[in-house]
């Protein structure tokens, strides 16, 4: 059972979603228990509004967005055949299946990120989770690459990679090892960990890491770091369908080619900038919330004090009246 409540304290882009406590379990080595999820709008598939059915219900189908380059633009590192198959069939299929699953439901006009968080359901995933997350992951993956990519990042991104991994070369080793060791199908991610707010939907996999840090994580199947409240910056799809046509079963070669020839570090830098801005915004919201609660508490305490003072004054008045009455009696 899902209930959505708007909280007037937060902007219209923020909602809290409370999910059922049923079906708690561990998944992929990550323990999952009831938590509260903050939903935000952001990256997601665009929607095409259509009028459907005899009742003319307005629905908004999620659209399959093409990669930001032609399907042969990544050759010779990723072939046109791979893109035709991977984007044209697999990715298309996730979007189409998701649209069917959510058609004319309460999810129909929800941003894709919110659909993912709703469907994750504290690890007890609802049927549309896989298609929603895979639709998001694939668009994010296509946009992580560009023709003539690779090389080395610069600026703030490089500074943080060097700060958090020791050197860019060490980050590359960690990312390669993480992607290579994801058992069976899944994803490797570079994320910005800034989960200062409540992550009520899942326990994140790096609890000992400090916030405001770059972290490399992997996820099985469709799972993505949005459910841990991380900000994804870069991902590589390590499902076999992503590389088999070009590299057969040589996943390490595919990963090296991705990093050395395809990654768009400019896109990753832009995502980092957005993630840091979001973290600052969240801190402001948290601070405002803290002040609001303190003020409410202070007012509550003041009211309590005033009530106590009034009671004491009343008691004093009663005592004085008694004494006055006694004095009058003595005079008589
Ligand atoms: Fe894929």
TrEMBL record:
List cofactor names only: Fe cation
Which residue intervals define the domain Manganese/iron superoxide dismutase N-terminal in the entry? 63-145
SUPFAM superfamilies documented for this protein: Fe,Mn superoxide dismutase (SOD), C-terminal domain, Fe,Mn superoxide dismutase (SOD), N-terminal domain
One cellular component term (GO) for this entry is: chloroplast nucleoid
Family membership: Belongs to the iron/manganese superoxide dismutase family.
Q: Which PANTHER family match?
A: SUPEROXIDE DISMUTASE (PTHR42769), SUPEROXIDE DISMUTASE [FE] 2, CHLOROPLASTIC (PTHR42769:SF3)
Q: What is this protein called?
A: superoxide dismutase
Lineage of this protein's species?
A: Eukaryota, Viridiplantae, Streptophyta, Embryophyta, Tracheophyta
Q: Which gene encodes it?
A: FSD2
């Amino acid at each position: 059972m899902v209930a959505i409540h708007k909280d007037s304290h937060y902007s219209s882009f923020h909602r809290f979603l409370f999910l059922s406590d049923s079906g708690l379990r561990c998944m992929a080595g990550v323990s999952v228990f009831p938590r509260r999820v903050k939903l935000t709008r952001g990256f997601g598939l665009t929607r095409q509004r259509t009028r459907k059915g005899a009742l003319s219900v307005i629905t908004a189908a999620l659209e399959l967005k093409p990669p930001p380059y032609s399907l042969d633009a990544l050759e010779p590192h990723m072939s046109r055949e791979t893109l035709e198959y991977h984007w044209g069939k697999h990715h298309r299929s996730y979007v189409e299946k998701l649209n069917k699953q959510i058609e004319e439901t309460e999810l129909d006009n929800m941003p894709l990120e919110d659909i993912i968080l709703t469907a994750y359901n504290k690890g007890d995933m609802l049927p549309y989770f896989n298609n929603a997350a895979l639709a998001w992951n694939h668009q994010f993956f296509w946009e992580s690459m560009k023709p003539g990519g690779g090389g080395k990042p610069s600026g703030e991104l490089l500074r943080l990679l060097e700060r958090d991994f020791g050197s860019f070369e060490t980050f590359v080793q960690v990312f390669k090892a993480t992607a290579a060791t994801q058992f069976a199908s899944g994803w490797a991610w570079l994320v910005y960990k800034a989960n200062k707010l409540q992550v009520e939907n899942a326990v994140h996999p790096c609890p000992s890491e400090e916030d405001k840090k770059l972290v490399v994580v992997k996820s099985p199947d469709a799972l993505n770091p949005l459910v841990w409240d991380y900000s994804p910056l870069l991902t590589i799809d390590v499902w076999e369908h992503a590389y088999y046509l070009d590299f057969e079963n040589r996943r390490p070669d595919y990963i090296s080619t991705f990093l050395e020839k395809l990654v768009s570090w400019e896109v990753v830098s832009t995502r980092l900038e957005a993630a840091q801005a979001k973290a600052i915004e969240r801190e402001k919201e948290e601070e405002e919330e803290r002040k609001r609660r303190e003020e409410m508490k202070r007012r509550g305490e003041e009211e309590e004090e005033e009530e106590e003072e009034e009671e004491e004054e009343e008691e004093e008045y009663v005592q004085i009246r008694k004494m006055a009455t006694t004095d009058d009696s003595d005079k008589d």
